[in-house]
Amino acid sequence: MGSMLPRRALLVGVCTVLAACGGNNNNNGGVIQINGTERIGWDQPAADTSELSTLRYRIWVDGVSNDASDASCSNPAGANGFPCTSALPHMPGGAHTLELSAYVDGYPALESARSTALRVNVTAQTVAFQVPRISASLLTTADGVQLRQEVIAQGLTDITDLAFTGDGRVLVSERIGRVRLIVGGQLQPEPAATLADVDTSGGGGLLSIAVDPAFAETRFTYGVYTTPRGTQLVRFVEANGRLVNPAVLMSDIPYRTANPAASLRFGPDRKLYLALDDGGDPGRVGDLGSYSGKVLRLNADGTTPSDQAGGTPVYLLNVNAPHGMAWGPDRETLWVADAGDGRTALLDVARSPGRQQRAVPITRYALPSGATPVGLVTYAGNPLPTLRGNLLVAIGEPPEILRLRLDGSNPSTVVATERLPTDLNGPLRAIGVSPEGTIYLASPDAVVEFQLVLPTPGGTSGPTALRFPG
After folding, report:
1. Average pLDDT per block of 10 residues along the chain, 470 residues long
2. Are 102 and 463 in contact (CB under 8 A)?
3. 394 near 374, Cβ under 8 Å?
4. What is the helix (H) or strand (E) element at residue 99, kind and residue range?
C-alpha cells in the first residue's frame, strides 16, 4: 500500500484484466489526472476488526453520494486506521471533487462527516464498467439538508402531474386519461376518473390536474387534456374517492401535434390559471385573438374574472410549451417553465402591475443546455425551513431538481442555483409539494416522497486522508 501524505493524495494507476494503465496520473496544482478505472484508498479509524465490519461507505462526487459497494479493508491497522480501497463511481470526463463518509450498516443516519476533498480530472476512459446508482435514495443539499426518498406508489402508467386535496390524499394523472388516488400512502386499485375522449397521439393526453383551494367545500378538481378536436379543460366533483359529473369548461383549443404541453394551477388570488402551448404555430403567442401560447386566468367555473383586462382571460402572452407554473414567495411573481422552441428551455418571469392589467414579462432565464423542465414549485412548507422561498424546477433527464434561491428583496432575481440529482428509475415527470410541506416527485410509473433525515445523537468516525493507493 502506498504511503499516506497528510491532506494530499497519492495516485498510482492500478492495472487489472479489465483496465489499461493509460493515464499519466499527474498532480497538477492539486488536481489529480485519472482515467476513472483506478481505486480510491483511505485509512478508516476503528477500534478493531469487529467494529470495522459494521461500517459502510459513501463516495461523494461533486456533492452527490454513491455507495462504495465493493469497498474492502485490510488488516492489520496502521497508525491512522485500517487501509481501505474502493472502485470509483462512474464520472463523466472533466473536473470533479471527491469526498468519503462512513456510516453504520443498517443505520444510515449514523454517518460521519465527510473527508477532506480530493480534486480530480477524468480523462478518456478505456474500459466499460457498470454505472452505480446514487446511494440509498439520499438527497443532500449544499446547506446540509438530507432527504430520503421513499416510493409510495408504483405500477402507474405514464404519469404527467400531481395534485393534493388538502386532506392527505394525492391525485396522480396518467397520460392515458386516468386520475389515480393515493390514500394513506397506498395507491387505490381503481381509478378516480377515466376520460373517454382523450387523444394520446404525438405525446398528448391528460397533461395536468389541479385541485380547487376551496376543495373542502366545493370538491372541485380540474384537468386539461388533448382530444381529437383540441385541448379541453374539464371540472370534476369528488365524491367518495371518485371524480364524477365532468363539466367541460373550455374546448377545441389548437395544440402541438408533437409533444403538446399545458399546465393547470390555482394562483394566490384563488383564480384558475391555464397555460397552453403555441398550437404548433409560434406566431400565435403574441396574437390576442388566440388562446394558444398564452396563460389564461379564469374563475373556478371557467368564466373570465371581472377584473381581467379587456374582458378576455388572456393573462400572459409569449409562451411556447408550458410545463409548469408557480408563484414566487411574494405571491405576485409568476414563474412559467417553458420547454421553448425546442432549442432552449426557459423560465419566464412575469408580474401584474395592478388590477385590470395583464401580466408584464420581467425577465427570462435560460436553463442549462439539455435541461428540459417538467414542472416547478415554490417551497413554502415548514418541515424544511432552509428551502422556504426556493423555486424547485423538476428536470426530466437526467432526473434532477434544479434549486433556485431568490433574492429576498427582488423575488424575480435568482441569486444562487444548485442541481440535486435524484435516484428515480427513468426520467422525472412531475413535482409537487403537499400542504404539509412534503416534496413529491414522479417518474413515468412511480411516485416518491422525500422525508427529512433528522440528526442522530452520537456519530461515526469518518475516513481520513483520501488518496489513490498503489
Report:
1. 27 25 48 78 87 87 78 86 82 79 79 86 45 50 86 93 95 97 93 96 96 97 97 97 96 95 96 96 91 96 92 93 95 91 80 76 86 93 90 93 91 90 88 94 93 61 52
2. yes
3. yes
4. strand 94-104
The span from the CA of 182 to the CA of 167, in Å, is 11
- Buried/exposed code over 336-348 (b: 16+ C-beta within 10 A; e: otherwise): bbbbbeeeebbbb
84 contacts 71 by C-beta, under 8 angstroms: yes
Question: What 3-state DSSP class applies to 190?
Answer: coil
Question: Which residue ranges make up each domain of the chain?
Answer: 27-134+463-467, 156-444
Q: What does DSSP say about strands 31-34 and 118-122: parallel, antiparallel, or unpaired?
A: parallel
CA gap 353, 152 in Å, rounded:
42
Integer Cα distance of 316 and 35 in angstroms: 50
Cell of 428: 422525472
The CA distance from 235 to 225, in Å, is: 12
Tell me the whole-structure pTM to 2 decimals: 0.69
The hierarchical CATH code for the domain 27-134+463-467 is: 2.60.40
At the topology level, CATH places domain 156-444 in Neuraminidase (2.120.10)
Residue recorded with cell 390576442: 288
